[in-house]
Structures are given as structure tokens and as C-alpha cells.
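REQUEST FORM: STRUCTURE PREDICTION
Request ID: SP-0412
Submitted by: Lab K.M.
Chain count: 1
Length (residues): 376
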Amino acid sequence: MKGLSARMRTLGVAVLFWGLYSDALGAETRPGWQLEWEEVVKGAKKEGALAIYGGEEVTHLEVLKAFAKEYPEIKVVTVTGHGSELGSRIIAERRAGKYLVDVYAGGPSTPYRVLYLSKALDPITPVFILPEVTDMSKWYGGKHFYADPEDRYLFLYEGTVAGGGSIYYHTQQVDPKEIQSYWDLLRPKWKGKILFMDPRSSSLGLNAATDLYYNPDLGPQYVRRLFQEMDVGISGDRRQGTNWLGSGKYSLCFACRDIDRAKKQGLPINDIASDQLKEGGGQIGGGSSSVITLLNRAPHPAAAKLFINWYLSRKGQALVQKVVNTMVVEDFDAMRIDIPKNDIIGDGRRLEGRKYQVIGFREPKPVLKLLDELLK
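STATUS: Completed
RESULT:
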């Protein structure tokens, strides 16, 4: 019996050793990113929560439902709204010692002017784990693009074609064939009939003004003449601007939004195709495209890392592109090139075979200085 007990103990030790060896062997054969990803998922589930601020491209219910289906253990809290309001709210919370936000996504103006300059962001590049996110060949241009001067904080994941300042018109008051160039808008007939989303308080307006300012065929001269000569109307409210255009109070609008949704509701509104304009149609990114950022001192760092990778994955971006085009009803072309593009509405879709200039970071200070002078 003693001999049998000894053999059993020896066998038990051998089984234990083999189990430990197998685990170690399994770990060694799994790639490093997979081991890291498993730890992130484990940590995120332990945290059990995630806080996201931003536009509908990241807070839409359909996006959140898809994430919750894969990770039901993580409760997601979102706050959506205008970028400037959200940015001010985040900074106010942080000044009060409340670090409540993990991820912010939306147009690049607020993330740069408010979050980046306030040093409220962590570099986002180091949190990319999934090979389909880190593999540059899956992204337009074979690289990752950013909208900050360090190429580390504001990751540009939308590549919708921009015309240098989107122009929309009232279909009963404007013949779009008359407008083949931005300079055509400086004709006397349009004086008092152009609306511009307030570039001092609205990220939409600042983005449009920045596009015009940095367009080599337009520049500061065009911005100055537009605001000095054309008696331009100003609106700081997204819904109000669209309503003013739809009602005919103004004939043309720079940077109005919800146009496709308004058209579906029967309002006589349309957009001037960017490639119709002499100075437009060859750019993507810039002020009208979305970025995603990671807040520093994030309360749920593992969940934030997990969400960012999921969101930027092939599945995540295919869903976001579909949701924005078909439910938010805005044109959105993801920077990922390995997903179908048949659901993109409007003229924001990149054309195959055409090369586009990707607009990343552009310093807004000279634009704001000029606007302050012109809009006193």
C-alpha cells in the first residue's frame, strides 16, 4: 500500500507539472496581443462600467446595443450634445476633481481646443491592441491619421469627402448650376442671403471657416471678403440654422447640419456637391470628420481600451458607418478600407481610384484671430 501511495503521489506531481507546463506552453504559443487582449477584457469586466461623451457616431443606441451584446458585463453611460458644451462640461468636472469620462468622440475642434490644450488626454496610439486596428493596410493611405500636432491623441477614423466648407441651399431660391466656385457666393445677389454657423461658439462653424482659411484657392482673403461684404447671418444653434434655411429666411448656408434628415421631412434643402466646386472635392478629414480620444485619469481604463479597439475594429466601423448614414442620416465614410461602402449617402463617399488629400491637424489660432476681428 505504501508503494501504491508513493506511486500515486508521484503521478499526482507529474499531472500537476504537466498541467502547469501545458498552461505555460499555451501562453507561449499565443501571440502577445492576444494575451494582452485577454487581460484587458478581464479587467474591463471587473470594472463593469464605461463613460462616453460625444456625438451620435459614438453614442447612438444601435452602437451601444451592439457593444452591450458582446460585453453585457459593462454598463455604458453616455452624454451626447454639441461639442463645445461637452468639452466645457468635462473641464468643469475635472476642475472640481471629478474625473468621470473615459472616451470622447466627435469633430476635432473640441478635442483639440478644449481637451488637448488642457492636457486632459492620454495618447491613444498605445491602447491599440487588435491586429485589425494596428494593421495600417486596413486604413486609407496605408497609415493612421491624427488631428493633433503630435499625431498621438486625436485619432481620425472618418474620411468623408469634404469640399472645403459644406454649402447647402434652398432649392426654390437657388439654382445650383450658378455656383461652380466658392467665389460665386461673393456676387451681390447673395448679399444678406447667406447663413454661417457661428464659428466662435459652434464647432461646425469653426470647422467650416478653418476649411476655407486653409484652402490654398481661397484662404484668409476669401474669409475676409465673405464676412465683410456679404452681410452674413450667424446662428449658433444647429436646429435653428437648418430651420432658417428650410423656411427660406436664408438661401445658402455654410455648415448647416441634418440636411438629409430635413430633406426626408420634405424641406426644400439640398447640398452643393463638393466636386462641383472648383476648389473642393479633393479632401478628406479636417474639421468635418470625427476623431476618438482617450481621457487621462480615466475612471475605467481597461473598459476604455476595450471599447476603443472594438469601436475601431472592422465590425465596429462597419456598424458605425451604417448607423450614421441610415439612421442619423448624415454621410459618413470610414477610414477603414476593408468594409463595404454601399450604404454611404450623399456625395461624401470616396471614389475608387481617386487620390484625396487627408487633412489632419490645422492650427485654429489664426482663424479665430481673423474671425474675432471680422465678427466684433
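NOTES: The first strand starts at residue 49 and ends at 54.
Reviewed by: T.R.
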